[in-house]
Design goal:
The protein is α+β, with helices and mostly antiparallel strands. The protein has a single domain, classed as Cathepsin D, subunit A, domain 1 (Beta Barrel), CATH 2.40.70. Helices cover 15% and strands 46% of the residues. It has three helices and nine strands.
Length: 138
C-alpha cells in the first residue's frame, strides 16, 4: 500500500500556557519535523531528541504493545500543541527511541478530522464533513 509521511509542528504547551498567564517571557519551544502516519497506532509518539528539544516533562509511564506483540514500558510526557496542515490540537506525547520515526496515531488524526488517502499517500479532510473540520461528539 505504501506509507504516508507528513510534516508537523509541535510546540511545548506548558510554554504557551506560561506566556498566556504572563508567568514567562520566554518564547515557546517549537520543533518542526516529519512523522509517519499510522492508523494502527493510537497516540502521538515523538523521538526522544524532539522531546528533549521541546523541554517536555515526564508525567507517567505506560505499557505499550509493539507490532511484534511485545509489551514495552514507555514514558508519557507533558502535552504539545500539535499542528498538521493548519489544524491544531493538544496531545500528550509518548516517547520513542531516536532510531524509530515520529508517529501520528489515530487519536490525533480523529481529533484534527484528518483521513488517510492511501492512494495518494496524504492526509485529506474528512469527506463526511463537507463544511470543514467537525468534531463528532455524540
Amino acid at each position: 500500500m505504501g506509507k504516508v509521511t507528513i510534516h508537523f509542528t509541535a510546540t511545548n504547551y506548558d510554554d504557551v500556557a506560561d506566556a498566556a498567564r504572563r508567568k514567562s517571557a520566554r518564547k515557546a519551544r517549537k520543533v518542526s519535523a516529519e512523522a509517519l502516519v499510522d492508523t494502527g497506532a493510537t497516540r502521538l509518539y515523538l523521538q526522544s531528541k524532539i522531546i528533549k528539544a521541546l523541554g517536555l516533562r515526564a508525567t507517567s509511564e505506560i505499557s505499550s504493545r509493539t507490532m511484534s506483540d511485545r509489551s514495552e514500558k514507555r514514558m508519557v510526557y507533558s502535552p504539545v500543541d500539535l499542528e498538521i496542515q493548519g489544524r491544531r490540537g493538544t496531545f500528550e506525547v509518548i516517547a520513542l527511541p531516536d532510531t524509530l520515526p515520529n508517529v501520528i496515531g489515530q487519536i490525533p488524526l480523529e481529533h484534527l478530522d484528518w483521513v488517510v488517502d492511501m492512494r495518494n499517500r496524504r492526509l485529506i479532510p474528512n469527506p463526511e464533513h463537507k463544511h470543514g473540520e467537525l468534531a463528532d461528539d455524540f
